[in-house]
Design a protein that fits this description.
heterodimer; A: Amidase signature (AS) enzymes; eleven-stranded mixed beta sheet; B: Arc Repressor Mutant, subunit A; three-stranded antiparallel beta sheet; Aspartyl/glutamyl-tRNA(Asn/Gln) amidotransferase subunit B (chain B)
Chain lengths: 497, 502
């Protein structure tokens, strides 16, 4: 069974379609793997064993009847616990939603089911997607499969860890400031934040509405592309959803090439705070791109140094409003309701007990930033910075086809190291945040291990909005060249659990 | 709480000038809610018309109701407003259990319509222009029912029930600029404005605007300033004043109360006030020590609304004749006074009379029935005139029967009674109730007319009071009808036609 869990999603789909494997065998193998290793990793908050097997049986029956199968039929997937799943708990990593069973499926959930993807369960995450380490989960941290004492990134640490520990070949994440890409980088996996609006946010519990974007996580660029095509596309239930055809990402992933492309290196993404080994692997990647036929151009994006500050005004502002609904009145936790207290008191007690420290910190930051007299100075200025960053990108993309940078300044840090230092934690998203502010598409893929600690380093590729296919074209070329250089996929070097 | 002795209205106006601001919320009559597909129909079981979006469930998202936007633009155009080329929704953040998301999706500094006016006609015929600041789109909240307390208010209640059927129903909030210069007519202007706005909304077909059903709700903001002063005084905000009469009374009461407080050297506290239907008074609600901070910001879950100029012009082209213009035209066509027209308006009879005329009746007869017999019946039953079980077409038919002489006034009344009692169309009622004799009576009537015409001197005597002289005319008619008429009835007819009591 060990071999089966190491198959890519593309391979599984082909074997299920041809009848070489059944969806049930595939699902059972992954459930067995979860059983075997997840006690150590803690990637999942909820494993839907029965539901997954039932769905696998349905796929096999569908095939037996000769019906057409979805493009990823029979492929297991780990779903971030931020997407609503009808009849299956959805906690968003928070105590305030403990025990909540949504009455409806997110659009992403629905599309996965329609594509015959097997949803194994819901993965751990920083509470409400606020964090870069998954330590902010109310249900305990997740370990990085490369070193279980280290963080798997965040907020989607459960999804990235499930991939890196071969518990699932596919996962779904959400990326508000880097929550898909940074976990991918530190676990040696692939993660894509599509263009804002590419993947429906309907049923994706909101953190920061103007920044949140769901996207695919996988172990290969092609697998990410296959999943991208399944979940992307216009959704009338999400007003911010793009009403245009999905870029041909699978075609791009099958035809990786950078020959003749202009690749920009953002010079602001370097210097203090960047780990030497990370920069070394990044520079080697740039050299590789040149060898593969790309023209390398140095690009300056002067407003990027204000991105982190703008992000930490916009995201908390929106979250302070988005999270107001958790008031104990309609669903989720209700604390202190002993019959003697007013609704207002019960709401206050529930929020005090149900939200963790980081969530409270951001709600307070956002409430302050939006308050009258401060709005212009904080939220207003942050929106101006957002415009400047978008302009920096526009100018850059007049000169180059894609931009590249390290995904995150350092490799995975030890669990607990930055837990009490929010500013240090926030720096993990330094390179990823600009793409969220501008709504661009971006990918992280593995580009080696840092010499000093032997931990994965991620290469970030950023493309203009609506040009997601460029990520896959470039990513596939880099992936193929590096795999050839290493003689095997990077994840084969991960310790067995 | 200290009870303020009110100052007389005249004294208050002698010293101060009232400044008003009126905020009216109108529930649109769209089939579905503003941001989801749930039904807006009234009277359903609690929480049966809800979905993830209007319940604010985690992950849910809003989608704008295009008909809601269209209605907002129509209202804006009818109020002579500019229509924004680009505007956004905004979140108004505050906690309250009947608000599922704990923010209201509304509009803030980018309303869909702004800078307009509405001309209203006062009872003395004066046209008063009320300037409109803005009209914006938003969603309604759910409804709280407080159980266990004495008054139905939250104070003293043991628990509260929440019904979210109303949550998300589209609202248009229409805000006036400060209304100055109305002087002693301020309360009348307030009432006339709300009445005119209601007519306008109904004419546009965007809402039934029934105040008693909460489909239209009014807040009356009022302040006083000494005559000649530039600066506005501190205002009070009387919330949810929900009838035309109450709007007028609330404004009047607040003028007298403010004057009393100011006259005693006191200061008006900026606060919300509750209006009491029983005695027309207001009492203190919530004190606004500082302006509530709603932390407005643009709603990131919705895209901007950018109505194309072509669409706006297309909608402008569909606007009906404005109610005041229409009333002036009809008043002239019908040949009635301003005062009579006001009564017709107050009775809700304009459309009914118009439809009756369209069905063939003449204006005088149509107005006579609707404003007379039918208005009386509606009044007795406490029903709206339009709710009576009789149609303009049926009323027109009765008028026609009278015109052709088949019915006289008394019989026409009986026919209408039959229609109202559900006995069928006028012709059916006439047949079933045996009012048919009146058609013979028509012939009889003609013979009587002939006899009167041919015996003018005798007729004059009868008119002069010599009732006994009628015998000669009866004889003439009996002769003319070759004795087939009922002599007693003929006598009655003669006296009736000559306007003499038997």
């Amino acid at each position: 069974m060990t071999d089966l869990i190491r198959l890519t999603a593309a391979e599984i789909a082909a074997k299920v379609a041809s009848g070489e494997l059944t969806a049930v065998e595939v699902t059972e193998a992954h459930l067995a793997r979860i059983e075997a290793v997840d006690e150590k990793v803690h990637a999942f908050l909820h494993v839907d064993r029965e539901g997954a097997l039932a769905q696998a049986r349905a796929v096999d029956e569908k095939r037996a009847r000769g019906e057409e199968l979805g493009p990823l039929a029979g492929v297991p997937l780990a779903l971030k616990d931020i997407f609503t799943t009808k009849g299956i708990p959805t906690t968003v990593g928070s105590k305030i939603l403990e025990g909540w069973i949504p009455p409806y499926d997110a659009t992403v959930t629905q599309r996965l089911r329609d594509a015959d993807v097997i949803v194994l369960g819901k993965t751990n995450m920083d509470e409400f997607a606020m964090g870069s380490s998954t330590e902010n989960s109310a249900y305990g941290p997740t370990g990085n499969p490369w070193d279980l004492t280290r963080i798997p990134g965040g907020s989607g640490g459960g999804s990235s860890a499930s991939l890196a520990s071969f518990q699932a070949p596919l996962a779904i994440g959400t990326d508000t400031g880097g929550s898909i890409r940074q976990p991918a980088a530190v676990t040696g996996t692939v993660g894509v934040k599509p263009t804002y609006g590419a993947v429906s946010r309907y049923g994706m519990v909101a953190f920061s509405s103007s920044l949140d974007q769901g996207g695919p996580c996988a172990r290969t660029v092609l697998d990410a592309a296959l999943l991208h095509e399944v979940i992307a596309g216009h959704d009338p239930l999400d007003s911010t959803s793009i009403d245009a055809p999905v870029p041909a990402v699978v075609e791009a992933a099958r035809n990786g090439s950078v020959r003749g492309m202009r690749v920009g290196v953002v010079k602001e993404f370097a210097g203090e705070g960047y780990q030497a080994g990370v920069m070394q692997r990044f520079e080697e990647s740039v050299e590789l791109l040149r060898e593969l036929g790309a023209e390398i151009v140095e690009i300056s994006c002067p407003s990027f140094d204000k991105a982190l500050a703008a992000y930490y005004l916009i995201a908390p502002s929106e979250c302070s409003s988005n999270l107001a609904r958790f008031d104990a009145m309609r669903y989720g936790l209700r604390a202190g309701d002993d019959g003697s207290k007013s609704a207002e008191e019960v709401t206050a007690l529930t929020r005090a007990e149900g939200f963790g420290a980081e969530v409270k910190r951001r709600i307070m930051l956002g409430t302050y930033a939006l308050s009258s007299g401060y709005y212009d100075a904080y939220y207003g200025s942050a929106q101006k910075v957002r415009t400047l960053i978008t302009r920096d990108f526009e100018k850059a993309f007049e000169q180059v086809d894609v931009l590249v940078s390290p995904t995150t300044p350092t490799t995975a840090f030890p669990i607990g190291e930055r837990a009490d230092d929010p500013m240090a934690m926030y720096l993990a998203d330094l390179c990823t945040i600009p793409a969220n502010l501008a709504g661009n598409a971006a990918m992280s893929l593995p580009c080696g291990l840092a010499p000093e600690d032997g931990l994965p380093v991620g290469l970030q590729i950023i493309a203009p909005a609506m040009a997601d296919e460029r990520l896959y074209r470039v990513g596939a070329a880099v992936e193929a060249a590096l795999t050839e250089r290493w003689g095997h996929p990077l994840l084969e070097e991960a310790p067995s659990l | 709480m200290t009870v303020t002795e009110l100052v007389s209205y005249e004294d208050a106006l002698a010293t101060y000038e009232p400044v008003m601001g009126l905020e009216v919320h109108v529930e649109l009559g769209t089939k579905t809610k503003m941001f989801c597909g749930c039904s807006t129909s009234l009277g359903a079981d609690a929480n049966s018309q809800t979905c993830p979006t209007c319940l604010g469930l985690p992950g849910s998202l809003p989608v704008v109701n295009a008909t809601g936007v269209e209605s907002a633009i129509k209202i804006g155009l009818a109020l002579n407003c500019e229509i924004a080329e680009w505007c956004r929704f905004a979140r108004k953040n505050y906690f309250y259990p009947d608000m599922p998301k704990n923010f209201q999706t509304s509009q803030y500094d980018e309303p869909i319509a702004f800078n307009g006016y509405l001309d209203v006609q006062l009872e003395d015929g004066e046209i008063f222009r009320v300037e409109i600041e803005r009209a914006h789109m938003e969603e309604d909240t759910g409804k709280s029912t407080h159980v266990g307390g004495a008054t139905g208010r939250i104070h003293g209640a043991s628990h509260s029930l929440l019904d979210y059927n109303r949550a998300g129903i589209p609202l248009i909030e229409i805000v006036t600029k400060p209304i100055v210069g109305a002087g002693e007519k301020a309360p009348e202007v307030a009432r006339a404005y709300v009445a005119e706005l209601r007519e306008l909304i109904k004419a546009l077909g965007v809402s039934e605007a029934r105040m008693e059903m909460g489909q239209m709700r009014c807040d009356v903001n009022l302040s006083l300033r000494p005559h000649g002063a530039d600066k506005f005084g501190t205002r009070s905000e009387t919330k949810n004043v929900n009838s035309l009469r109450s709007v007028e009374r609330a404004a009047r009461f607040e003028i007298q109360r403010h004057a009393a407080v100011l006259g005693d050297g006191g200061t008006i506290i900026q606060e919300t006030r509750h209006f009491h239907e029983e005695d027309g008074s207001t009492t203190s609600g919530r004190v606004k020590e500082e302006a509530e901070d709603y932390r407005y910001f643009p709603e990131p879950d919705l895209v901007p609304v950018a109505p194309s100029r072509e669409w706006v012009e297309e909608l402008r082209g569909t606007l009906p004749e404005l109610p005041r213009v229409r009333r002036t035209r009809l008043r002239e066509e019908w040949g009635i006074s301003q005062h009579e027209m006001q009564s017709v308006l107050n009775a809700g009879a304009i459309d009914l009379i118009t439809a009756t005329i369209d069905a063939g009746a003449d204006a005088g007869a149509a107005r006579k029935w609707w404003m007379g017999e039918l208005a009386r019946r509606a009044n007795e039953e406490g029903a709206e005139l339009a709710a009576l079980p009789i149609t303009p077409v049926q009323v027109a038919r009765v008028c026609a029967l009278v015109d052709e002489g088949s019915l006289n006034d008394k019989l026409a009344r009986q026919t209408i009674e039959g229609v109202l009692a559900g006995e069928g169309d006028p012709d059916q009622v006439v047949a079933d109730r045996g009012l048919k004799v009146v058609s013979d009576e028509g012939a009889l009537g003609a013979a009587v007319d002939e006899a009167i015409a041919g015996n003018a001197a005798i007729a004059d005597k009868i008119r002069g009071g010599k009732v006994a002289a009628a015998g000669a005319l009866v004889g003439a008619v009996m002769k003319a009808t070759r004795g087939q008429a009922d002599a007693a009835r003929v006598r009655e007819l003669i006296l009736e036609k000559l306007g003499v009591e038997g």
